[in-house]
Amino acid sequence: MHDAIENSFLASLEMTRFKGFLQDHHYISNQYIFVAQLINLILKWYCSKTKKQHLVSVYFERLENYCRKFYALNIKIFNWNSVNSVQKYNQKPDLKIWLKNPLSILAENAGGGILLEGARIIELIPSGKQPSSEYDSVFDASWHVILPGLINLHHHFYQTLTRVYPQALNKELFPWLKTLYPLWAGITPEALRMATRLALAELLLSGCTTASDQHYVFPAGLENAIDLQVEEAQNLGIRMVLCRGSMDRSEKDGGLPPDSVVQTCDEILADSERLIQQYHNPEEGAMTQITLAPCSPFSVSETVMRESAMLAKKHHVLLHTHLAETEDENSFCLKTIGCRPLDYLEQVGWLNNKTWLAHGIHFTDEEIQKLAAAKTGISHCPSSNMVLSSGVCRVMDLEKAGVPVGLGVDGSASNDSSNLMQEVRQAFLLQRLQHGSKVTHLDALRWASEGGANVLRRPELGRIAEGMQADLALFKLDELRFSGNGDPLAALVICGAHQADRVMVAGKWIVEDGQILGLDLEQLQAEHHREAKRLQEK
Ligand SMILES: [Zn+2]
Description:
538 residues; binds zinc ion; alpha/beta
């Protein structure tokens, strides 16, 4: 009996500890107190019945110790920097989990679900079958549509601080940039931290498991921008490709940005190399990677373009920049450099399979062939292109020619949303408008998953298959917009899913029941909004 009580005592505490204990601390605190009181009562009853008074002091002492432990744990949960350690505590890494009988899944012959072990998918289970090996737990996925975790190829997190800024509304790219540069010059480390956390939260909740961000604004005081972004991504547990952006060509040198937001070539290259050495992980399954990402031909000198390419080659990292976004850019390049943007890219040593380009709209047929031969990737950013009236990326032509294509939400100030699942729908609609019914929802889902993985040269990501990383986005179809659907997978795209119910990165749940574990969204929103207002009112 002694053991039985002790075991049930421990089991009840374990249960309350693991059952979504990161989601709402008030609720959980009350739950602990309730459990403690309940156990207290049971112990009192047992001791009075059995006359074993000596047990009272032993159990009460244990009870007190456990309550103290949980109190300490609750404090830890709300210390943001310890989220990862809490998640590790919550999820044992090498357990085998069967995600059983999904409502639908974007994978071949996996109607019975998938078996995961640690960070990997180890088995696809056909309908009506069981996993071929033993497993530790089962997750009933019969209410969920399972997608490979989505991959975002292009963003500027800091721009969440200047969403729908009134003076920049209804402008095309160049005047839009010129309005916003002076504001961006005032970004502080705390503001960038909030912007990064907020954008990553938006992305995660939309089913994104691999995010990339191109940060290219480095005013005085923000020299460690990428370092703090690495910290934020690691705390959240999302896979991250940090693009070390740069600008060194200000107005005085014929560029677009003001002096206040640019750096010198030496500063850019020294910091780029430091970041690669400090954070870049070239291994399969890496959670943090660095790429070099001079902003665009109209804000970066030829020297920075060339030197960045050489540095990237030396350290085997990728290159990223904006290209062929607008007709203004073509005119600018022709006038100042004497050639079209893609020719310029080739001249500075960038036209290869280690480069991907944001937008890639204004290419000729010959240029598309050139891109295909080099296997240079493209990030299609449909919302941004529509908002800024930049044009329509020729996604179908690019893919047909053999160019790797993925999706990007682009900076918040042009898209004003970091929702990658909504971007899948935008891509579907825009390309459908251009190419008719040969564009399907499966194409759009492929661009956001496998396509993105190809662009980032990450063959272990973007697909649900044996041996792949367990990066997954699970959506429920329990909203009005899905009611009556006949095809759950198509419904996600065509009815417009916008929030994942669960998201897993490298085998760990990061989102459960539509909540990011360990992150207080209300508090984040308040802090981010305060930083945005401070910046806009400077
Ligand atoms: Zn951009």
